[in-house]
Amino acid sequence: MSKQNCSMMRDLLPLYADGVCSEETRKAVSEHLAVCSSCRAMLEKMNRKVALSAETDISAIKKIRKKLLAVRIAVIAAAVIILAGGLYAGYIWAVTDCSMDYVKYDLANNVYVEEDGSGDLWLCTKGNASALSIFAYPTLSDSSGGHLGHDGQSFDADKKSGMGYTLKMMRISAISPFTYGSRELRMRIGKPDPEIKYIFYYDDVNDIEYVLWGEKPQT
Ligand SMILES: [Zn+2]
């Protein structure tokens, strides 16, 4: 086999290896390869190189995929953390408050008014009332049962006769850890105004007064 023939064949080998040469060329190269071991060796080398580079490509793709997956996991984790943080914040801040049910939270035994030595009145809470309440909303009542705050239109400011408090809780606080514990709370009402004859707990949902101190005038 002439060296010149080999050099021509080697020019054709890449096309042969890729299978893109004409049928005639393919035949000629095959015939030459059958009798030329050095060209055969060249072809083998070429094929190995192609296979190797394909393998390298696959492992590079796998690496990129792994990186993308890690990025995706990080993004999802960040989103979950942000969402959870938002919910946590919403848990505390965006939850609406609501009146505490007098019967459900046993307020008859947990809310009372006390007079101290100097004649000041104190609104006192304990148990559930202290654990769950976050605000005490005051309201005034008039002699015909109207309430300032609940139904301001019927309230007669000139005939006020009682002062009431409604305890408010976060709607969700009953199942949340964000309560104030079960210690007693005392809120100073002060010396009773002569016009104020009684102090009451006001269930503003059902419009019911529960007298805590003094006497409700008969209407
Ligand atoms: Zn050859």
Please indicate the count of domains: 2
Helix content: 40-55%
Number of strands: 8
Strand content is 15-25%
Low-confidence stretches: 90-94, 173-180
Average pLDDT confidence is: 82
Helix/strand/pairing category: alpha+beta
Query: What is the string of SSEs from the N terminus onward?
Result: HHHEHEEHEEEEE
Number of alpha- plus pi-helical segments = 5
Shape: rod-shaped
Termini gap: 130 Å
Bound chemical compounds:
zinc ion
Over all CA atoms, what is the radius of gyration?
Answer: 44 Å
Largest sheet: 5 strands, mixed
Task: Report on the architecture of this protein.
The protein folds into 2 domains: 3-91; 99-214, no CATH class. Strand 2 and strand 3 form a beta hairpin. With 219 residues, the chain is of the alpha+beta class. It has 5 helices and 8 strands. The longest helix is centred in the N-terminal third of the chain and has 57 residues, at 37-93. The strands form 2 sheets. Strands 1, 4, 5, 7 and 8 form a 5-stranded mixed beta sheet that branches. Strands 2-3-6 form a 3-stranded antiparallel beta sheet. The protein starts with a helix and ends in a 5-residue tail after the last strand. Residues 90-94 and 173-180 have low confidence and may be disordered. 44% of the residues lie in helices and 24% in strands. It binds zinc ion. Zinc ion (ZN) binds next to helix 1 and helix 3.
